[in-house]
Amino acid sequence: MSDFTFEIAPGQSIEKQINLGKLSRLLKSTLVRSGVFHTREIKTNRFVRYHRGQSAKLKIRTGNLRASVGYEVKGSAIDSLTLGLRATSPQALIQETGGTVRPTRRQYLTIPLDAALTPAGALSGKYLLRQVGKKWVTDAGPTFIRKGVIFAASAGGQVVPIYVLKKSVRIPPRFDFVRTFKRVTIPFVEKELQRVATATVAQGPA
Questions:
Q1: Which of 18, 34, 71, 92 could form a disulfide with 87 if both were Cys (CB 3.0 to 4.6 A apart)?
Q2: 132 or 49: which carries more pLDDT confidence?
Q3: CB neighbourhood size of 42 (10 A)
Q4: pTM above 0.85, yes or no
């Protein structure tokens, strides 16, 4: 049990005893709610279902980045409690800050075109590239390159553009993980902490 003094006016004060164990539990619960709140804000407001066309939000294709968003609360005592907000996908940093992606093992990046994607935005198994000897083929048939585009040729003679070759791709910053934290999550946390402080002082010792 510890004594806390709260100033309410010059020369005036009140003293209340606060159970630090109870306060710790309330603070931990607040951090958990804040982690849930931030995670929901990101997953709900920064992602959109895959569709063809431009979007200011991140279009869900594999879902890996969205699934990597989460939080963790550590500690139990007041001076050890921490809230960690995270996005662990390798895509997270460049989607947050923006930047240029360049190939690391080959001369070009292969960017899938609409024909190579399912309606949900995943790569179609039919047009997955695989190397056979020195040639690249798909389940639809052999491929060839014309003017920076990879085409798949089927046995029936149909030719489909499936990938475009790029030496680099510019990624705009669209994740807004930190911006959401500063503009949305921090006000939520402050409001929750104020509510806990008010309730704790009003209730006094447990």
A1: 92
A2: 49
A3: 24
A4: no
